[in-house]
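Internal tracking record. Fields below are filled automatically when a chain is submitted to the structure queue. Please do not edit lines marked as system-generated. If the sequence contains nonstandard residues, flag them in the REMARKS field before resubmitting.
Queue: standard
Priority: normal
Entity type: single polypeptide chain
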Amino acid sequence: MHGDLIVRVAMHAATTSTAYSPTFESTALEPPSLPLHPRALFGALAGLLGLGAAAALGAFDSIGALRLLPSVLLIEVGSLAMTAPTLLALHQFLGLRASVEDLAGALARALVRGGQVAAGLVVVVVGFAVTTDLAIPALLAALLAVGVFTTVVGCVELSAAERRAARRTPGLHSGEDVRFTLLLIGWVISSWAIAGRLGVHVATWVMGY
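SYSTEM-GENERATED OUTPUT FOLLOWS
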């Protein structure tokens, strides 16, 4: 009788572990995804505008101040808008797995986090603009920090989207990881190249040349 009881307990334990193991595995392997809400997106855009407005407090004339206001927004959103279509098109052309919606969501999350960093740096730039003549150098340093943070979050989110899609569609295609890594590297390089070019044009426009 005791032997039958032990067998039943062992069978129940085996059944329970089998039933719960896939759930545990999928939860453990699921990468965290940053929340995305329309309100957060508008807040990020406001943070980018706020950073430009903070630098505008240290401008020498009203025209320069008005042009500084959208400067950060133009560079950050402009570089993302110009590189995103190419990234999405090449991703599909290379036969990778994440959907266009997931990739677009990943880029939107990167923009949100970059805008939040910009909002946090507003106080720093305001301090330099009000108390010193270093508003523009402070703005450039803040813009660099926003760009780095946006790039890092974008790479993390895009990679997470690709991994989730790979788990939903089993079967490894040859060279898939290499193609995705090269795609990410190309996106990062092109994003910074375009952002730099936009920065030069915006700086020229702000200074009135």
